[in-house]
Amino acid sequence: MPSFDIVSKTDVHELDNAIAGVRREIETRFDFKGSHCTIERTEDDIAIVADDQTKLNTLHELLRMYTTRRKLEASALDFSKKPERAAGDTLRHVVTVKQGIAQDLAKTIVKSIKDSKMKVQVSIQGDELRVTGKKRDDLQEAIQHVRGMKIEQPLQYVNFRD
User: Fold this and answer.
1) How far apart are CA 102 and CA 156, in angstroms?
2) End-to-end CA distance of the chain, in Å?
3) Would you tell me how many other CB atoms lie within 10 Å of the CB of residue 33?
4) What letter would DSSP give residue 6?
5) CA-based, 20 to 30 A from 130: which of 29, 56, 78, 83?
């Protein structure tokens, strides 16, 4: 029985390369000379420290630009947390890297596929979804349906088996 998995994973090596590019840009740009701006990654978080709000916004744009240059989805970065005051009158912003499909999003995808009356079965397996069906065409139809759902998280369709 053909099947595939819907996952949401971000390549951390490419993300590290993007962060290294942002660091190089900070070192060479004139508007960052003499500032105390840093960016570093810990597990699934990226900590950005900037002198003021304008430099923080510039670092956000640089991070988005370098992630897209490295062929990563910029929507994998969650900027929803508020920046907080840090030592020395600086701002610290923790950006979360989305990994895995959250339970509520998984339930939304499953409900949408079941409501569309496709001939596939969807099961939640941890932080990913497994879609099985009798025909390959049904699975491709399910992929097109999920792509059309306007989900704000990058999804990959992997492990396609006949």
Assistant:
1) 14
2) 6
3) 9
4) E
5) 78
Predicted TM-score (pTM) of the model is: 0.82
Question: What is the C-alpha separation between 144 and 125, in angstroms, rounded?
Answer: 21
Domains and CATH numbers, the chain: 3-8+100-161 (3.30.70.860), 12-97 (3.30.70.990)
Rg of the chain on CA atoms, in Å: 20
| Cβ proximity of 67 and 43 under 8 Å | no
108: left (phi over 0), alpha (psi -120 to 50) or beta: alpha
Assigned token pair, 42: 């810990």
Amino acid, single-letter form, for residue 70: R
**8 A C-beta contact, residue 135 and residue 2:** yes
CA neighbor of 132 nearest in space, from 120, 147, 141: 120
> Is pLDDT above 90 for 13?
yes
